[in-house]
Batch of 2 targets.
Target 1
Amino acid sequence: MVLTDDAQAIQTRHLGFTISPHEECGVEEAVRIVEAQGGEVVVLALGPAEAEEQLRECMALGADRAIHLLSDEEWDAQATAGAIVETIEGEEPFDLIVFGNESADTGNYQVGIRVAYALGLPVVTGLKGLTVAGGRARCEQEVAAGRDVYDVALPAVVTVKEGLNLPRYPSVPAKLRANRKPVDAKPVEPSAARLQKIRLVVPEGQGKQAEVLGHGPDAAAAIVEVMQKLGVL
Amino acid sequence: MSVLVLLEPDDELSLQAVTLARSLGGEVHGFSVAALAAPVDVLHVAAIDGSYAPVAWAAAVVQLVEELSPAAVVAPGSDRGNEVLAHAAARLDLPMAANVTELRGDQVTRQRWGGSLLEAARIHSDLKLVSAAPFAFEACVDSTQARVETFVPALTGADTAVRVVETVSTSTGGISLADAKVVVSGGRGVGSSEGFAILEELAALLGGAVGCSRVVTSAGWRPHTDQVGQTGTKVSPDLYIACGISGATQHIAGCKGAKKLLAINNDPESTIFTHADYAVIGNLHEIVPAISAELRKVRGS
């Protein structure tokens, strides 16, 4: 990874953007629930103008409309949760609020929980399985021994992980429809960060010098020797 | 001053959290909901009936915080550790830093992008709430005998409204990816679902498990439960064998806990080699069966 000169961000000049895997599964799950049971899927993003592209992708997956909180600033988890809570409180009440378990970039592991706490709603995290029926959500969380199951009343907050489903590839007509769906964009300002980023650092140890054991199948003997040395045989 | 560390039984990540807690100096207090052996000075066992209930655990942690006024609360960097700490942070309305690799005063270093990048940050709070990044610390193994104090937290019905009501076993009887000592993992270079047969064979010979990259699960060659990476399973074997995997940062985030990484790839310029301890250049479809054959030969003699 290459940083900007001020070490405040990743150099993205040559990079593309995409929805994170956890969140993509979250959108797919919401769309499936509404396809089966009726209702509306609203997607929300906090980010720069360019993030509209990801909101359009979500609507191509089947979301009905989008809310875009516009900001180029860095938001800590508490400020992010605050902005989401304020937005949700300005809408008709949702039955289900879905988050990715943790963001791919900042990985704070807390925004969904903070939102649930502020709204006074139950929250189950890290879902790999979700069944919504009769005003309740059966939530399956992957643990070492298998799956822990929770049963909560709606409205509720859930945070999901990749593997919950296999998101669809949007069709061309779905992408065209997505371009006509509404995006409600409004500029927002973060409150002072209480976990304040100072700078980013590329960790040491990237660019290890590997020991070449050989080329092709002839390397097999050297590989097995290494396995013996490591004590894995 | 004192530090409170959250502990789960038989949990390597909890012992790593103790190492971070010990690095801060002062008396180390442990929190758990069951009696366990832990290298802390005082172990506070919360008497909470029944199955895991994240809000109840956090409520008990908050009560201990109010009683002990620790300088920091350290959680293991597990799903559960981060979850309980986040609930406590929400309740206390305080900042929380997840997956921390260093804490000094109010300066913290934490992982972003699954550990591919670090962030230096300042915590604006007297009480520091942090989780210890997995495998950033050695497990604490000192033989301190903790003084055990049991307490009964005051819980409301709302605190136990969300709790585990059932545990479904999904074990297939084989060695789980997360626990395997050897992981034989395949990427795009494996080429097909059928192509994994040679990886299965090698993993079986080594008593290990088969993993894969995200490209493979997206293509439907393997189930998501086999996926190693930032959004899949994070593994920590003694040896990770990456076959035909290019080495995207999202994949490395899942296997950097491995003690040693052996990469097999036909492209000598592949990024995976910059993360590998051992490199073999060539066609994995020839090399992997050759390793299995060599293993059989060595064991037969």
Target 2
Amino acid sequence: MRAFLKRPSGLIGQVFAILLLTILIEFAVSTMLYERASQFAVRDDEARRLAEHLVIARKLLAEQPPARREQLALEFTTSRYEVRWMPQLPSGLREQPDLDRLYEQVVLWEPTLASNGLRLRLTSQGSKALIVGAVPMPDGSWMYFRTREHVHAADLGLSRILLALAPALALILISGILLRRMLLPMRRLAVAADRFGTGSVLEVEEAGPKELRRVISAFNRMQDRIQRLIADRTQALAAVGHDMRTPLARLRLRADAIADPDVHAAVETDITEMEAMISSLLAFLGGEGDRETPARVDLAVLCATIADDNADHGRDVEYDGPDHFEHVLRPLMLKRALNNLVDNAIHYAGQCCVRLEPVDGAVAIRVEDKGPGIPEEDLQRVMQPFVRLDAARSRDTVGFGLGLSIVARAAEAEGGSFRLANREGGGLCAEILLPRDGPKA
Amino acid sequence: MYAGEPPLSLPTIVLVEDDPQLRTLTARALQENGYTVRPASSAPEMWLALEQGPVDLVLLDVMLPGTSGIDLCRAIRQKSSVPIIFISAKGSETDRVVGLELGADDYLPKPFGTRELVARVRAVLRRGAGERDTAERPKGEIQFDGWTVNLPRRELLSPTGAVVDLTGAEFDLLVTLCDHSGRVISRERLIELSRTRLGDSSDRSIDVLVSRLRRKLSDAGHQAPIVTVRGIGYTLNVPVTRS
């Protein structure tokens, strides 16, 4: 018994249950609607008047020969009732709902009508409800009648439409809600799938029908596997990167023994480039194993120090902004990002300015240069990993083309954004926008 | 005292590095600069080398096969307060901080050149010269006027607790000023110190460094406590405490 009462767990089971429920409701509501029509009644005096009118009209019509009946029937038409004579029963009368209550009322006054085979139906004309009916003549022809004014019980036309509509609306609503509820875990799955690869791994809670649970658990396992695969690869690459630094250290120490200063300088440049490549690759892969925690940092001084450090090494880098601006962030990651931007600017423009500007609810760090800028169509592309704008043969930049990807990641890690734009009048502006959530001191 | 002067005897360095060629090259570079080197390729060899006689410095590769350099550093610290410089192929900041907090005196990332190696060794030996044989090693923090200088981490914290990033030369200048607080240091002496320290390639004049430091140490209308003594040099005119 318990097992029977338990909610069906399968997708099909649940859809079936929902269908069953909606059909049951539909059935109940339509039954009620027809029941209501059959209970339709009018005031007693009205029923009596109708009964008398019908009895008299029938009697008088029956006394005339069929050829005159049509003409006579028109004379029985009053402001209230329209009466017509017809050789056969109009087919429409078969389809209208029965008016059992009204029938009883009428027959109560004139029982002869019952034995004659009276038919009563309800029909609508626009929003009006009308009573129509027919009484058979002794010779098998029919006297047809209908009320000319709509019966005042209710404007049954409108309410009938509403009533017919109500179950449909309710059904749509109920099944919509139920289906939505059932498929809610599906939506969570979609969110998790969308989020996958942007950093945090979202374990989806297993819920919903059996089939969905299976999909979710498969998704979770797949997520795990991919994560592990990436982690393994990253680890392997990082290990290679680390291991390469030992021979590189040997090379650098050996280079110190080179007597020719030109050769020594050239070798030193090569080693520096290789080291820069390894470092940027490790930074991109996160292979340094650093999960840097955010700290309260004087961002203004950090930017100024980057400019100062570069200036100390003979580069034309300035800082423009407030003397102090405290912010909570991951300083090393941001420093690496800003250094990448400054290095780029120095490489392409030979100079740059690091600007810090608090804006609405955020703080903007801009690295602006007066160089050639980047063609508009390439602005998005350069932010992708391993993309470089120099033609492969003429490449003279250090690294793998990971610099801007690292910047974008650093900005994302702080919940901020990174964008590149050409400045009016020439030059490039690289902007990191950080939301100002940490309280400013 | 002789702080800043090289000790009279040749300093002895124990070098722990598992890569044979790098060990030879590093040892040679150190020997050429006047140091006695006792090479070791593993933890047991290191303990043997340490027992052979007084040691002034340990250069320790943290990624030795079989042993974690971090554990080794901790083990050395339990027995001795000899200065330690970590060598690591990881540029990882966590590694650096963990090492420094365990009591390593400096951190040298691979690949390093002779110049950088010797500069670091010299700096650590000079810093250690005055403190050696004291029963308790200082934590390496200097406080003045609400500011905190963390020597091992080479970090400056503002009175509000924010990290204030300085260039290498600025940091060294600040430490020198703290070391001589209340006294006037001549510009010539500062120039000399900034040249020998860490091989910083800065060619900025001391005056530029001082003005930058002042700006970075200013605090909402509160002047930085660095005072110019006209014609002589500079002084830090607030009390300094060490912990």
